[in-house]
Every structure is written in C-alpha cells, then in structure tokens.
Design a protein that fits this description.
The complex is a heterotetramer, with two copies of chain A and two copies of chain B. By secondary structure, chain A is of the alpha/beta class. Chain A has a single domain, classed as Cobalamin-binding domain (Rossmann fold). Helix content of chain A is 44%, strand content 18%. Chain A has six helices and five strands. Chain A starts with a strand and ends with a helix. By secondary structure, chain B is of the alpha/beta class. Chain B has two domains: 345 residues, Methylmalonyl-CoA mutase (TIM Barrel); 67 residues, Glutamate mutase, C-terminal domain. Helices cover 51% and strands 9% of the residues of chain B. Chain B has an eight-stranded parallel beta sheet with strand order 1-8-7-6-5-4-3-2. Chain B has a two-stranded antiparallel ribbon with strand order 9-10. The chains are: A alpha/beta, B alpha/beta. The interface between B and C is large, with 48 and 48 residues. The complex binds cobalamin (2 copies).
C-alpha cells in the first residue's frame, strides 16, 4: 500500500488537545504518515503544511464551537493554493450548542468539506471511508 | 516572613495599566476605585469571597454552573434562570474563546453576528467588548455572587473591566490558564500577566473590597493525577498571596475513585495552608472547589446524570466548599439553560442527601493522602528550590525541566513526558513519570499499581490503556478495560 | 437437621391445586411438568435464578426495572424496550392491583377497557387473565430472564400460571406480601398460601427447573429500619427453604445513610446464611437485592435522577447482587418506557463507575453491622421461639405480639406500635420501639440517636420529625430538618 | 367554631397507607373530627361511615392508578343515600401515568367531585379551601 500523508490540526483559537493526540497515534498505527499541527492552527498553517508535505488529506478538528467562523474561506484558500484535490475532512462539535446534525452537515459540505463528522466519532467509524476516499482520489488524480 | 520582595510595585503597575486599558476602547471606562466602592456596598450574600468563607465555616458545599452567551440581555436571562430554576448558589460568566486569546476584533464580529442572527456564534460572553457598564448590569441583575470564568493567558484587560464592574471573583492563573489553554505563550509572560491581575485584586482587597481568586484546578481535565494539579494550585496560591490576594479557592477535577477524590480535596486544603503559612500568609482564607468529571462525557443524558451524581457525591463526602456542575448536554454541545439547571438540581439533591455524611476515615484514605502529599511536596519543593526565592521563576523552571508536567497539555512550555492511566480501582496513576522528581518508592508504587491492572486485564500497561481510559467514562465505565 | 416436618405434602398440594386452578378459567391451561421441561430448555442466560447466581460469583450488580401494562403486545414491547434501550440485565412483569386482590373480574374489565380505549386502565399486567400461552409469549420474546413482581396475599393461581408459562422468578412471601399490601388478611392464611407457592417452586426445582424466589424486602418502603425488613426476609427465607426452594434473593430498601445501607446489605446475606445453615439448608443459593429509595420521590426529574444515583452508588459499594431501579417519573405516575430506560441507564453508569470500588471497612461500619445483627437476631430468635418448631406459627405469633412490627403498614395483623425517624446522619432509627424485644442498650442507642438529632434541631423527638422525614427526600433532603 | 367531621379513606384495592396516616394526624391537629377508614375502602364503606357520623366531607385518596374505575358511580350512590350535600374531595395519582392535569381534573369534576387535587398536595395547600367550602356549605344547609 502506498503511504498517504495526512495533516491533522485543531483550527482557530481551539485548544482541545486530547482528541487530536488520540487521532495522531491511532492514524499512525493505521499506517498513515501523519503530520500533526496540534491545536490553535490557522488556515494558513494548514495550507503551508499541505504544500510542504504534498499531503493527501487535511483532517480539521473543531471542538469549541467557533468552527463555523474559523472555517470560512478555507476551501477557497486551498483552491487558490492549487490544493483542490486534497481531501478535506472535518470533525468535532462544529457549531454552538446542539443543532440538527443534518443542518450542520449541509452547512459544512456547502463550505467545501468532503466529509463532515459528528461529535464522538471514533477512529474506526471513519477509517474505512477515509481509505476509500483516498484510494478513489489517487485513482482519479494519478 | 512574607515573600514581599515578589510583590509588584503598584506605581509600576499603574503605568502598565495605562497601556493595558488602551488595548480595546472599553478600557477607558475603568475606574477601579469606584469599582471597589461598589463592591464594598454589596451585601455579604452577593460577595463571592464572603459566601465561600461562610460556606466553609458551615461545612456545606455550594453549587456553581458554567454558562455564558454572547448577547448581554440573553446572558442575564440565562444567569437568572440558573439562579431561580437551577437554585445555583453561585453564578459564573464564562468568556468566549476569542476574548480568551485577546482577539477582541473577532469577538466583536461574533457578537454582532450573534445579535443579528439571533443565535449564539460565540461560545461565551465577550466581557471586554461589552465594557464596564454592561458588565455592571449583570451584577445588578443577580441575587447571588458572580465569577468570571475563562482560560486566558493574558487576562489583564478582562480583569480590569470585570472587577471594575463589580464581579467579586476571577478564575485563572499564570500556569493554569496557560498550559492547558495555549500553545506558544511563554510561562514568564503569562505568570507576569497574572501577577498584575493578582496585584490588582490585592489592590481592591486593600480598599476593603473582598475578591476571590481561583486557579483553574482541572487543567486539561483528562486523567490529571492529583499531585500535578495540586502543585499548580499551590504555586498559583503562593503567587496570588504574594500580590496581596486574601481569598483563594483551590480546585481539583474529579478523577473518579472515591478514596482518591476524597484524599485529594483534603490534602489540597492542608498542603496549601502549610505552604501559605511557611511563606508568611497565614491569613489567607482558603477554600476548595471540586469539578465534576472534566473529561469526555457520555452522550446519553441519562448516563450523564449518573456521572454528574457520582461527582456530586464525591464533592459532598469530601466536603469541598463548592462544586462546579456539569450538565446532561456535556457531550452534545453548549447546554441549553434547562439542561444546565437540571445538572444543578441533580447535584443539589445528591449534596443534600449526603451533607450529613462523611467519607469514612480509613487506612487506605490516609495512605492515599500521604501519597498525594509526598508527591505534591516533591514537585512543589523542587520548583521553589529552582526559583531560589522567586516563586514565578521557580514555576517557569519547573515546567522547563518537566518537574511539573501536565498530561495532554497543548502548551510547548510543558514537557509532555508524563502519561497517566487508571489502576485497578480506577485511581489515576502514572504510566510514565517523565522527569517528575519522585523518590524510588513512589515510582515503584505507580509501576506496581499499573502492573496489577495489567495482570487483571491480561495485557501490558501501554498507551492503549490510556486511550481506553480516555474513552471509558464516555462509554459508561470508569476503568477502560479491554472488551 | 432439615425442618422437613414443615414441608407440605405434595399429594395434599395436588388436591388443593385442583381447587386453585378452577378459580379462573385460565387455570385449566396449567401443566407444571411441561412448564418445568420448558424452563429446563432455556439457556442459562434466560434463567433468572442462574443469572443471579453467576452475578454473585462475579461480584457484580445487575439492574432490573419495574414495569407492567395490561395489554400483552404492549407489555412485550415495553419489556423489549427496557431490555434494548435500558440495557436491563433482568426484566419484570409487574401485576395490576386487582389481580393482586384476586379480583379477576375487575381485572378482566380493566383489560378489556384498556384494549378498547387504547390506553392503560390497569396499573400492571393481569397475568391470570392472560393465561399460560400468552404469558409464555413474554418469555419467548425476551432475551434476559423475567420475574413476576406483584403484592398478592394469595398468589397461588398467579404462581401456577406464570411458572407453567416459563417465568423463572416469583417475588413475594406470606408476610411481605400481606403486611404492606392488605388490611384484613390473616397471616396464617397468607403464609399458608405462600407455602403452597414455595412448595410448587420446590417441585419445579425437583424437576430440574431452577426457580428464584424473592421475599419483598422494602415492605412499606418508608423508613423501615433494617432489622425489621431483615427479620421478615429471614423468616420468609426459612419458609421458602422448608418447601424446597433453592434460589432465594433477599431484599432491602435503601434508607439513605451509606454506612447503614452497606451494613444492611452485608448483614442480610450473612445472617440469612447463618439461619439457613442452622435450619439445615446450607445449599440454598442466597443473593441480595437493593431497592433504590422506595418512599416519596421529588417530582422534579433532575432531582429524581439524583435520588436514583445515590441508590445506585449504595448498591454498587455494598455489592448487592441486583438493584431495583426507580425512574425519574416516580413522583409523577407510572413511568413512560423512556423514563424507565433512563433510570436504568443512569443506574448502570453509576454501577459501572463504582464496580471496582468498595465501601470502606471501618469501625462505624462494623458497629452498624453489629447493631443490625443483634437487633435482627432479637426479633428472629424470639419469633422462632414463639413458633416452637413451626416457622409459620412463629411468624404469626411474632406479629400478633408486636415482636416484628412494620412501620406504616396497613394490615391489622401488624401491631403498628413502632415509629421510625432519622438520626443526625440520616440513618433510620426507632422513635418508638413498641414491643420489639430489644436489650436495654439497644433501646438506649435508639433513644440517644434521636436525642442527638433533637439537640441539633432544637426540638424534642416527636411525630413531627417523622412527618418531616417522610417528606424529606421528596423535598430534596435526607433528614427532615425543621425550616 | 363548630367541629366538622371528615371521612378519610383510600378507595378500592389501593393500599398506600403513609399519606393517609399523615393526613389523619394533620387534620386532627387542625381541629377536625377525623374518621379514618384506612386503605382498601369500598364505596359502600364510605357511604355508611358518612351516614353514621353525619359527616361534613369525604376525602377520598387514590394513589395506585385505578381511581377512575374505583370512583365510578360514587356520587350517584351518595345522592341516593341522601348525602348530596356532603362535600366530596379527592386527591392523589388519579389516573395511570402522567396525563395533563386539566383533563384529569375535568374528568373527576364531571364524576361529581367538588375538588380534585394533584399528586404532592400538602395539607397546607388544601386546608384553606376545605375550611372555606365547609363554612359555605354549613351556611347554605342550615
Ligand atoms: C476536556 C475538555 C476541555 C478541556 C480541554 C483540555 C485540552 N487542552 O485538551 C478544557 C477544560 C481546557 C476545555 C476548555 C474549553 N471547552 Co471543552 N471540553 C472538553 C470535553 C469534556 C472533552 C473533550 C475531549 O477531550 N474528548 C475526548 C477526545 C478523545 O474526543 P474528541 O476530542 O471529541 O475527539 C475525537 C472525535 O471527536 C474525533 N475527531 C476529532 N477531530 C476529528 C476530525 C475528523 C476529520 C474526524 C473524522 C474525527 C475527529 O476523533 C477523536 C478521537 O476519537 C468536551 C465535552 C465532551 N466531549 O464530553 C468539552 C467541550 C468540547 N468543550 C467545550 C467548550 C465550549 C470549551 C470552552 C470554550 C469552555 C467553556 N465555555 O465551557 C473551553 C475552550 C477553550 C478553547 N479555547 O478551546 C464545549 C464545546 C461546545 C460546542 N461546540 O457547542 C464542549 C462540547 C463541552 C460543552 N458541552 O459545553 N474543554
Ligand atoms: C411508598 C409507595 C408504595 C408502597 C406503599 C406502602 C404502603 N402500604 O403504604 C408500596 C411499595 C407497597 C407501593 C405499592 C404499589 N405502588 Co406505590 N408508591 C409509593 C410512593 C413511592 C410513595 C407514596 C407515599 O407514601 N408518599 C408520601 C405520602 C405522605 O404522600 P401521598 O401518599 O401522596 O399523600 C399526600 C398527598 O397526596 C395528599 N393527599 C392524599 N390523599 C388525598 C386526598 C385529598 C382529598 C387531598 C386534598 C389530598 C390528599 O396528602 C398526603 C399528605 O401530604 C409513590 C410515588 C411517590 N409519591 O414518590 C408510589 C406510587 C403511588 N405507587 C404506584 C404504584 C403503581 C404502586 C403499585 C401498583 C406497584 C407498582 N406497579 O409499582 C403498588 C400498589 C399496591 C396497591 N394495591 O395499592 C404509582 C402510582 C402510579 C399511577 N397512579 O400512575 C406511584 C406513583 C409510583 C409510580 N410512579 O409508579 N407503593
């Protein structure tokens, strides 16, 4: 299996570090090359890291509720940087309070995220999807 | 002999204040002497510091929620609801995350959007943007004392504005609001900023306005062994006392084992008292706050009520002075006001049913207290030694050397070499002790605890155990046993 | 030496059965040998007696709700919901109050009306009216064991039908289902009827079908001191063992003081074991059931969750084999299935978080155990003495003489001369001991306990204290202090 | 003040005895002549007791949920026995489960009860009403 490079990071002013750490270890164990930017990551840092490491996917985390504001314009910036084919995932508590999940998902899909995951998503819950998306993407772009 | 040489000179602070108060336009509204007069005029029942002091004397445990929404009228409604429907003994004003990072411009934008869209786009109350007068309306509108709760490495302007407005309690500290809440902020900087805040609180105190200060006990909220949070609490208590603070509440986040939790609350008080006396501050009024489980919660509300209740029981049996209450929505998102009030009432029922009972005194409890005390002293003594007379310098050097080391902390100032895991009874122990300056028998103790658990589970102690423990309470367990 | 002379002769019972089975048409469906074969064919995981035995060995606490609605399909839906959404380890089938009073005609009417109107007009499942086949569908449709729970002085027909249908557990007893549940039924009669039931259960046991029997522990559910419920439990355990029952679960209703509750569960097991061995029944499998607070509940659901959790904590720390779970609707009316499942999940969360912890062993606990043991022995020994070889006669005479006396019981067979009240720590003591044959130091102990409370509250111990205690938990307290 | 006689009892197959005991003591302390029939009381027993003691009011309790069935025809039977002017109160958990209180109250008012009280009613909650009703009734009938 070709090795895939994943960028991890918690966006904006968010400092929730525990899930980020767990994700890093679990995805490395699952055989990925993981570049973990940690917490308090700006849009610019995500983009720079993706360019530098020729990443296959960016996994954004947002737990603290400001995800909606923090992610505005991220997809456009990626496209501008020529990274339109990098998979863009997001997971966590994406809005303030508990809103209907379908609405939250739609909102973030419309913002350009390929996959949107609800709170409490376990690694085993999204791993098959991630592998499938990566395989499809590589098939398409190579 | 008081560590007076560590106290900031008020004239120097006055100069610094002029700079701080210009960081955002609302800074110009601050008049601390008027603020102190206002606070002095409040009845005892609306002064946070004095309510805690009274509770300590009565031996009861007060309830306090977390809560904050961006728009001021909504925030006041929320607090009144929690006061009336949740029967909260104490109220909070939780600050949003942009303000915590001094990003007042983004906070302003979030506040405006929240007003426009009629829904919260900030995860708290942007007190700086609201300014002194609006903050004063919060105090005027409530019948019980209100505290500012946040997570801000540089909270100088926030403190200026909210104390001037009449808030009588301010959470945080140079370590506890940096290590779990920042990545790059040097400890020197955050501690210095918090010395300013403590000096300011001390100034109010000099003017007869009692102000409560509370280091943030739970840190990363996730499997933090008591000695780690105790060390930070004691260092911050010393730092605050040096600046003239007279009312300090020290915090601890529930670990989940009743013996450990009880021992932790009891030692926190005793150890801090010892260190404060040694340092020449015997007159500080010390109280304790117990945080219901701060890590991942079950998403099912019924299960969340169970977690809340176990925390309430531990707080009552250990006789914490107050308990910070979680809500059944903890794993769902920022709670509705109804859910918040529910968490408060569940907690109050448990507190009331257990208030005439104490956690039984046993050898195991004494052993646990001794262990926590020895561990904590090892860390604090080494830190003070490194500081060579300066508590602040000691703290900075202790973190740099990994002498105090908080598990899962995002900050680069933290060594990040320790790793906690639960033992067979669910007490939080160290899987890796990193550079903690522990005696050999303490190191052995932790190794043995985890070895015994490993035996029970038929596996070697490893990071997988830690991961299992991180998820355990959320999945309805305490110890993360393999399935 | 076994008390074999007290065992009913099966041939005589067979004759009596012919009469019992004609009390209602469905009696004709009963074939106990087929029933025993069916029960033998059930996997271990669906036999109530064996699941409890396994839980005892593992040292864990199982959960069980109360639930019953009149219409069979609805009842099965309800049970499945509690099994799947409530994760109940054990299920109940709670019988309606007309059936409990053998008023099958009224039960029939209520059942028909419930079907017609599409809402429950009975407060439980009228199992007799449903008959064997319909009852069997309940067992066939569930994955965990199911018990019949009721409150019936003469439950012979109910037992015949439900055991034949495959239920593997049957709650009740000649004392515990008379004194709190009837007014005029002579104890001789109810005990004789329950000897029949125990003999029938013993017959199933002879045929290799394990049946669990459980005296109703909490009695009137309201401030019943442990020695009173223990005495009844032990007498009924002896009565059941004499008839050949091999699986007995003894119950206790939470009083609210953790030391007393732990001591109660522990002594219940030990004392019963002692008496059973003495009487020649060392091979009975004894387990315990802890009932979450059985008295008046708070009407606020959040507060109810608190009460439920304190009960779950006590059950776990005392290591009861199972816990009967209340719901957040307790003070609102018969719970919705959702509320019932919530109570179960809250309970399970607390059990899981505390299952690796034990209530600490202390002098106070030992003292409480000793007190309960001495008190219980005083009552049971005197009762057995009065019986002069006949446990049944002993029980009847003990009640007539007020040697065993249940507070607040409606039955005229009960002396009604005792009155309980809480002490300063919330433990339930006697305000009046009536005719209980206690030694002087025990009488003094209770008087002193209440005198101390009186001092704290600045009032004399009196019936007003009792009233305050009756309301206390419902109003968010444990001890009913004056306001 | 003239002494009023109250009949207390828990109707039907209901054995909830605690509230009944508390009511008895509290109402006696409040100065009433209380005749407490206890639990498991039939309609006939209520009526006989009311005739025998020349009662002013009957306070029916029903907690266990069968109140609706148990109380059918009670008012008619009272009228037939010439007791139409005896006040008829009921309190407790009158139906199965928790239904809208207004509906429950209407139902029992329609069944002839003068006052209907929800679960958790404390003595001080209904005492003023009871006194007022008794005074009015005596005023009218004498
Ligand atoms: C621990 C915790 C904290 C700690 C964090 C310590 C630290 N530095 O890490 C402390 C106490 C400091 C804290 C602070 C705050 N917190 Co906080 N916190 C939590 C808590 C209790 C647990 C989070 C956690 O560690 N979970 C365990 C890990 C393993 O799970 P996870 O983080 O969810 O990550 C997993 C999955 O989500 C998934 N995942 C994560 N990212 C991604 C990305 C992709 C692409 C995919 C596929 C999957 C995925 O995989 C991970 C591994 O399984 C949650 C509530 C809860 N969940 O119970 C609240 C919670 C997240 N916090 C919240 C808030 C609001 C705050 C504060 C603003 C304070 C406040 N107002 O109460 C501050 C914010 C500070 C800041 N600037 O960020 C809210 C967010 C509300 C919302 N969005 O509506 C929550 C939900 C609590 C609540 N109900 O109010 N918090
Ligand atoms: C203790 C109790 C029992 C004990 C009773 C012991 C005894 N013999 O007394 C036991 C365990 C035996 C028991 C049995 C049953 N119970 Co029960 N029990 C309770 C419980 C927990 C407390 C009742 C109590 O004592 N309260 C304290 C006293 C002081 O208050 P009170 O009785 O309400 O009386 C006060 C007021 O209501 C008022 N009042 C009373 N009558 C009147 C009349 C008038 C005119 C007025 C103005 C006021 C008034 O004044 C009183 C003093 O303040 C309640 C739930 C709760 N409230 O928390 C359930 C409850 C009443 N029981 C209930 C049921 C269903 C039963 C059972 C059928 C078993 C079952 N399926 O679970 C059996 C019935 C047996 C029978 N045939 O009656 C249900 C009724 C449900 C419904 N109506 O929808 C309840 C609500 C529980 C529930 N949520 O399911 N129970």
């Amino acid at each position: 299996m070709a090795e895939y490079t994943l960028i991890l990071g918690v966006i904006g002013s968010d400092v929730h570090a525990v899930g980020n750490k767990v994700l890093e270890v679990a995805l490395e164990e699952a055989g990925f090359h993981v570049v973990n930017l940690g917490v308090l990551v700006s849009q610019q840092e995500f983009i720079e890291a993706a360019i530098e490491t020729d990443a296959d996917a960016i996994l954004v985390t947002s737990l603290y509720g400001h995800g909606e504001i923090d992610c505005r314009g991220l997809k456009d910036a990626l496209i501008e940087a020529g990274l339109d084919d990098v998979l863009l995932y997001i997971g966590g508590y994406l809005v303030i309070g508990s809103q209907r999940w379908e609405d939250v998902e739609d909102k973030f899909r419309a913002m350009g995220f390929d996959r949107v995951y609800p709170p409490g998503t376990m690694v085993e819950d999204f791993l098959p999807q991630l592998r499938a998306d990566l395989a499809r993407q590589r098939g398409e772009s190579h | 002999m008081k560590n007076l040489h560590n106290q900031l000179d008020w004239d120097a602070v006055e100069e610094e204040r002029q700079e701080v108060l210009t960081q955002w336009p609302t800074g110009s509204e601050v008049d601390y002497e008027e603020g102190a007069r206002y606070i002095r005029s409040l009845p005892r029942s609306r002064n946070f510091a004095l309510c805690l002091q009274d509770a300590k004397e009565k031996g009861i445990t007060l309830t306090q929620p977390r809560a904050g929404v961006p728009v001021a009228v909504d925030h006041l409604d929320l607090l009144r609801f929690l006061q009336n429907e949740g029967e909260a003994d104490l109220l909070p004003t939780t600050i949003d995350s942009y303000t915590r990072q001094n990003r007042y411009q983004e906070a302003e934008q979030g506040l405006e959007e929240s007003r426009r869209e009629g829904r919260a786009l900030l995860n708290g109350f942007p007190a700086v943007n609201h300014g002194v007068d609006t903050n004063r309306r919060i105090i005027d509108g409530t019948k019980v004392p209100v505290q500012i709760r946040h997570g801000t490495p540089d909270a100088r302007l926030l403190a200026e504005i909210t104390l001037a407005a009449g808030f009588t309690a301010f959470e945080g500290g140079g370590i506890s609001y940096n290590i779990p809440y920042a990545k790059q902020v040097p400890l020197e900087a955050s501690i210095r900023h918090w010395q300013y805040i403590d000096r300011l609180a001390g100034r109010y105190q000099e003017l007869g306005a009692d102000i409560n200060r509370e280091p943030f006990g739970p840190l990363t909220g996730t499997l933090v062994p008591p000695c780690v949070s105790h060390s930070v609490a004691i260092l911050e208590a010393l730092l605050a006392a040096e600046q003239g603070v007279k009312h300090i509440t020290l915090g601890y986040g529930q670990c989940g084992n009743l013996v450990q939790d009880t021992a932790a609350v009891q030692t926190l008080n005793r150890l801090a008292q010892e260190y404060l006396e040694q340092a020449g501050f015997p007159d500080v009024v010390l109280t304790t706050v117990f945080h219901q489980w701060m890590g991942g919660f079950p998403s099912d509300e019924a299960r969340a009520f169970g977690v809340i209740s176990v925390g309430a029981a531990a707080a009552a049996l250990a006789r914490a002075t107050k308990v910070i209450v979680k809500t059944p929505h903890e794993a769902l998102g920022i709670p509705s006001k109804e859910a918040n009030a529910e968490g408060l009432r569940t907690t109050k029922q448990v507190l009331n049913m257990l208030k005439d009972q104490m956690f039984p005194e046993t050898d195991a409890l004494e052993q646990e207290r001794m262990m926590i005390s020895r561990e904590t002293k090892a860390l604090v003594d080494r830190a003070l030694e490194l500081g060579d007379g300066s508590t602040a310098a000691g703290a900075v050097r202790a973190f740099a050397a990994g002498v105090v080391d908080v598990p899962f902390a995002p900050s680069r100032m933290n060594a990040g070499k320790t790793m906690p895991a639960r033992d067979n009874e669910g007490a939080v122990r160290f899987l890796s002790t990193g550079n903690l300056p522990f005696a050999k028998d303490i190191l052995d103790f932790h190794r043995d605890c985890l070895a015994r658990r490993g035996e029970t589970e038929g596996r070697k102690p490893s990071f997988q155990m830690v991961v299992d423990d991180i998820y355990a309470i959320g999945k309805g367990m305490l110890v993360g046993r393999p399935r």
